Structures are given as structure tokens and as C-alpha cells.
Amino acid sequence: MSTQVHATVTEADVEQISAELGEPDWLTETRLEAFEALEALPMPSVIRTPGRDWTNLDALDYEELVDPLEWAEEKDRVEAEGVEVLSWAEALEDHGDLIEDHFGSVVDPQRDYLTALSTALFGAGTVVYVPEGVDAEDVKIRTTMNSRSLFNYTLVVAEKSSSVTILERQHTGEPVEGDQYYSGVVEVTAGENATVQYGALQNLAEDTYNFSIKRGHADTYGTINWIEGNLGSRLTKTSVETRLLGDGSESKIVGAFFGHDDQHFDLASRVWHEGEHTTADLVTRGVLDDTARSVYEGVQDVGEDAWDTNSYQRENTLMLSDDSEADASPKLIINNHDTEASHSATVGQVDQDDLFYMTSRGVDEESATNMLVEGFFVPVLEEVEVDELREDLDALVLERLGI
């Protein structure tokens, strides 16, 4: 697999990226080690159902897609009082020790082939540092992709008894001839009694292949909530994960997607209950039209020492076309009997009784279907506690419906 990029990317390229960002030796070495490991690393695990692999990441032409030295973006960072939102170079200069302590501590730089590739080649980066006791909202990170490939890295460190709400958006700016590749890695650390709410809205151009991993560690009484909206890209492979390490820690993972044409979504939500008295809630809803496809995997893993665990999961997919395809694989792994847990997943079409009821009262079929789709998203939108993200996501759903 590594020959797919070695034909166009070398160790010298990795060193050049690191030098241009003014990185210390330890980080350059981390990049080089990740690059060298590509030869032996597998692709990220994909969701398999009996008789079928839904996503073939090996089929992508990475040699053609990856051009890391020519990356270009527009990055708009909006700070909140008491919170530092820094470019990668600024953060290295101001908080080098903090980055050394946390970089790669949540997401293994050599977790798999695509994560290692991103570790070696990322040029765009942001650090959000929330000092102890700070309570902040409205931190924003807007990324406009203007190149064939873009590797992005975000580190969030929330210290003891702090709180922050972050809204991240990704979209495409200047058109690029041919396919594009976007890769994003997000690491979040929530200290004791800290709360991090991270909302992301991906609306990349539909000739883009999108890979992302978002993962957080929650300390004692810490909370990490994720909101994940996916409407863009040709193929999205994403995983949103939380490890509940501390007693009394909590996490909510809310997801929404809307696929049309030949879009493909491979979505995973995972939570590990490791401390006592932990709580998790995984909620995902999606709609598919035309020949779009989706596959979802949700995993709730309760450890042996995770006494008094509460863990819930539900996923629902609405199919508007006979040619669309969807599958879901919710999983419970329970190693402690003191657990209350549930999981469910449904795949179905627009309810014909509802459609008949509305058309029989003068609503045309297209408008009735659109109203039912909009209503289908309401339960998940109600779970989105970030007003701006909820409004943006609702607006994009209406735009997709042509309303």
C-alpha cells in the first residue's frame, strides 16, 4: 500500500513540511516514524456485514490524490474570552510543552495507514487551549479547502473545571480539476470536571474523498459531547470515539447525514466505559436518496471495572430511493453486570400511510415527502445543543431537498 504514495512523497517532503512549521526535533521524528510505518500498516478497519465489505479504501489512488507540499486553505479561527485558538506554528511557539504532552496521546499516530499518513503530512493545524476554570462558548474553526489534498490536525486541551463549545466547518473553496482528498485528525482531552462540546459540519465538494478520526479522553467527571454532520464528499470514512476514563465521566455522540447521487458514508461511533458511574448516549439519523449508500457501526464497550454504567444507542436511516442502500451494525460489549444498556438500529422507507394522509389532504407528493424528511431529522436536531450548528444543519437539509 505504501508504494501508492512513495512514488510521489518522500521523507524529504515530510521533513520540509515539519521545517516550514518550525517544529521541534521530537515532532519531526514522530512524523518520520509514521511515514516509515506505512509499509506495514493496514487500512482503517471497515464495517463488514455477512458476505459484503461496504467500503474499499484500498481502491483509492493515493498517488494521484496526495500532493502535500501544494496544500492550500483558508482558515478562520474565532476565539472566545479566556480561550486560546492558535495556528500550529503559534501553538508550538507558545505552548510547546503542552503539545509535546498531548500530541498522539489520544489518537495513536500509527493507528492505521490513513492516520499515519495524516500524521506524517499534515500542514494545517489548530490548537484550542482552555485554561483551568475558564467557561467559554462560540469558538469557531472554519476550513476552506483550496487544493487537491489537505491534511488537517486539531488538538483540544481543556484543563480542570473548564468548559468550551467548539464549532468546526469544512467546505471547498476554489475548484480543483479532478478528485480531492481531505484528512482530519482531532484529539480532545477533557480534564477533571471539564466539558468539551465539539460540533463538526462537513460539506466538502462531492468529488472529495474524506477521512477523519475524532477521539477524546474524559477524566473524572469530565464530559465530551460530539456533534457530527455529514452532507458533502463522494466518500466519507469517519469515526467518532470517546474513552470514559474517569469516574462519573459522560459522553454524547450525535450524528446526522444526508446522501444523494452516488455518495457513500461509512460512519462509526464508539465509546469505552472504563471508569465507574459513566454515561453515554449515541444518536444518529440519516437520509439516502438516488444511489447513495451508508453503513453505520456503533460500539458500546463496558469494561470489567466500569461499575454502574449507563449506555444507550439508536440509529435510524430513511431511504427515499429503491436504489439506495444502507446497513447498520450496533454492538454491545459488556464485561460488567452492573450495567444498564440498550442499542437499536432501523432502516426503512417513507411511511406510505403518512404519505397518503398528507396527499389526501391536498399536499402534493413531493412536498409531503420533503415535510416527512424534515420531520425525520427533528429528533436528532433536538439533541444538538449548539444553536448555530443546528440551524446550519437544518438549512443544508432544506437546501438538499430543494426547499
Describe this structure in words.
The chain has 403 residues and is α/β, with parallel strands linked by helices. It has one domain. Helix content is 23%, strand content 43%. The chain has 10 helices and 20 strands. It has helices spanning 3-6, 11-20, 25-37, 62-65, 88-94, 96-102, 113-121, 352-359, 365-381, 387-401, and strands spanning 48-49, 52-53, 73-78, 84-87, 124-130, 135-145, 149-158, 163-172, 180-190, 195-203, 208-218, 223-230, 235-244, 250-259, 264-273, 279-288, 293-302, 309-319, 325-334, 339-349. It has a 9-stranded mixed sheet, covered by helices on one side. The chain has a 9-stranded mixed sheet with strand order 4-5-7-9-11-13-15-17-19. The chain has a two-stranded antiparallel sheet with strand order 1-2. The longest helix is centred in the C-terminal third of the chain and has 17 residues, at 365-381. The radius of gyration is 21 Å and the shape is globular.
